[in-house]
From TrEMBL:
Coiled-coil segments on the chain, per record: none
Region spans: Disordered: 1-20
RNA-binding recorded as keyword: no
Organism: Streptomyces indicus
GO molecular function: lyase activity
Keywords per UniProt: Lyase
A Pfam cross-reference name: Pect-lyase_RHGA_epim
Rhamnogalacturonase A/B/Epimerase-like pectate lyase domain boundaries: 59-262
Protein name: Pectate lyase superfamily protein
Skewed-composition ranges (Polar residues): 1-16
Length: 605
């Protein structure tokens, strides 16, 4: 095999014995000084579809000092569809937006992914570097809009092996890559966008509901932009493959109505707000499908690792999501943030194989986070299965405000990364018996259909304890529900209360005073002074009324029939507790209380 120069009017070729010659190298009016060991100045055929911006007639300097805007734009304008505008290693200073036209590939020599230890950010100078003063709102734009300058349909642009470095722009609101209107089939491959004063990559409407679509992003890094990493609106049929957004000041990925989309092996890390956000109204045309999110990761995002709050009816499938240390919340943790949160979503969300593992910053500072592994609230349809959820407060939180939730096989853990106590949840019961969930409740003492109209008398100052069980997964409790069968009179303000105790007798939550509320009959939904999250297990609802004539509370069984067979006072379902009380005590020695057949009814929501 040899490289053969066949005259000055033919491209270089490789000769293979028994084969044919194929063009492999073309040099744009360059000089070859040695061929097959022979020296001499041999000029090869010029290339017509590969434009080096540093050569005449464009002659970009690539030194980071001279303004190369006009040279690069002239090369783009002169490049035929299917051609390549090539930027050799160098720093290409620009001071205005570059307009990338139909079918042109913009190719660099190397895309640094990010700066590493000991690097200053100037190593491997292979990038476009916009500098102030700058004209325009993005470094590169792609426009499909009949605005007098651009075509109605634009597409087939390629950006490859290129970095855009916005570190010299200061505080101006400039995006990295901006696309508007009917921009189709754009590919970004091995591209880095860093330190933009605004967003990294943006897609937007041209005003008539037409958005960019059918984009492919492969091996893309968006690093430390001052707003969001990716802000994609209406970008249907999009594929994001190995896209990483790190250190952006806002959200990492913001995807609005990106139907028929795919996220594959993407990562959101150390972003100021949510790592990923699936939001907006989805599915506004006949071809709209959902989105598939597969094998993605989060780590150390400021709020939720992934938030799904989209509306519409197109299903969102999340498979193999790994979340880690999200909900950083400025280092303080908490904030009700989760590795994965589905909040206010009307789109059906199907989750399989999600994991969450908490932690602190790499250096050991900050508070353990996230607070929850998976949080589901106010959503229409959520299904979760095959999950391992370890978080600071609770692995899984369903606050009871959702319409339909299926919780399959879920293992949860709570506390620091070293916590080993785990709970298995298995959902999908086919039992036809009515349950609290059928009534939109978290737990109850017993089915309210068994309640009778008359109740046992209530003794003023006596605490009555009614056992409830939280099953399946940890739940956030906001209210206690009881019933008043006969009104109270002469009730003392500040001494009529309900609360929640642990199975060990420790008070966990309490309501405000109910003296006025209990002077009428009916169901009473009583807010706690603060919501409390209850792990799977048994708890007691406590009821205290103090006054001349305490109310009678709704109850089930009574008389001499026991309702706690086989149980001791420490574990009984119903207890008559401490007497002569004016408030709910901080602790109650359950084993010292009296088992009662007075099955007062209570529920949690």
């Amino acid at each position: 095999m040899r490289i053969q120069v066949t005259g000055e009017t033919q491209p270089d070729q490789i000769s293979v014995t028994g084969g044919r010659k194929s063009p492999v190298i073309e040099v744009n009016n360059g000089a070859v000084f040695a061929v097959n060991g022979r020296s001499g100045n041999v000029t090869l055929q010029g290339v017509t579809d590969w434009t080096n911006v540093t050569l005449p007639p464009h002659s970009a300097a690539g030194n980071g000092i001279a303004d190369d805007t006009s040279a690069i734009q002239a090369a783009i304008d002169a490049c035929p569809p299917g051609g390549v505008v090539y930027l050799p290693a160098g720093v290409y200073k620009t001071t205005a937006t570059l307009d990338l036209k139909n079918g042109v590939s913009l190719r660099g020599a190397h895309a640094n992914l990010m700066t590493g230890p000991g690097m200053t950010g100037t190593e491997y100078p292979c990038y476009i570097q916009p500098a102030a003063p700058f004209t325009g709102t993005s470094v590169i734009q792609i426009i499909g809009d009949p605005d007098g300058t651009h075509p109605n349909i634009s597409g087939e642009q390629r950006i490859t092996d290129l970095m855009v470095d916005g570190s010299q722009l200061g505080g101006s609101g400039i995006d990295g890559i901006y696309a508007r209107g009917n921009v189709q089939n754009v590919v970004l491959d091995n591209v880095t966008i860093r330190q933009m004063p605004n967003n990294g990559i943006v897609t937007a409407s041209r005003g008539d509901g037409t958005f960019p679509y059918s984009w492919r992003l492969h091996h893309v890094m968006v690093d430390n932009c001052h707003a969001n990493g990716l802000l994609l609106t209406g970008c249907t049929d999009v594929t994001l493959d190995d896209v990483q957004v790190i250190g952006c000041w806002g959200q990492g990925f913001v995807l609005q109505n990106c139907t028929n989309g795919q996220l594959l092996s993407c990562r959101a890390e150390w972003n100021g707000s949510h790592g990923y956000r699936i939001t907006g109204t989805w599915g506004d045309w006949a071809g709209s499908g959902g989105m598939q999110i597969t094998g993605c990761q989060t780590d150390r995002n400021g709020q939720h690792g992934m938030l799904i709050d989209a509306t519409g009816n197109t299903p969102i499938l999340v498979t193999g999501l790994q979340t880690r240390r999200d909900g950083r919340n400025g280092g303080s943790g908490g904030g009700a943030y989760a590795g994965l949160a589905v909040i206010g979503a009307t789109v059906p969300v199907s989750i399989d194989g999600v994991t969450c593992y908490p932690g602190v910053d790499d250096g050991g500072s900050s508070t353990n986070s996230p607070q929850y592994g998976l949080r589901v609230s106010g959503s229409a349809t959520v299904s979760v299965d095959n999950a391992y959820l370890h978080a600071d407060t609770a692995g899984y939180l369903d606050d009871g405000t959702n319409t339909l939730v299926y919780a399959g096989s879920i293992i949860t853990a709570a506390g620091a990364t070293t916590a080993t106590a785990r709970t298995l949840t298995s959902g999908g019961s086919t039992d036809a018996t009515f349950t609290p969930a059928d009534h939109g409740l978290i737990a109850w003492t017993h089915d309210p259909a068994t309640l009778r109209s008359a109740s046992n008398a209530t003794v003023s100052g006596t605490v009555y304890l009614c056992k409830v069980k939280v099953v399946g997964r940890p739940r956030q409790v906001t209210n206690i529900i009881i019933g008043i069968e006969a009104v109270g009179a002469g009730l003392i303000a500040g001494q009529c209360l309900v609360g929640i105790y642990s199975s060990a007798g420790t008070r966990l939550a309490v309501s405000a005073d109910q003296a006025t509320n209990w002077t009428t009959t009916g169901q009473k939904t009583i807010p706690l002074t603060a919501p409390t999250t209850l792990a799977v297990g048994s708890y007691y609802v406590a009821i205290l009324a103090v006054g001349t004539t305490p109310p009678q509370f709704a109850m089930g069984a009574g008389g001499s029939t026991t309702v706690s067979p086989g149980l001791t006072a420490a574990t009984a379902r119903f207890l008559t507790g401490p007497t002569a009380q004016t408030s709910l005590p901080a602790t109650i020695a359950l084993a010292s209380q009296t088992v009662t057949s007075g099955a007062r009814w209570a529920a949690l929501s």
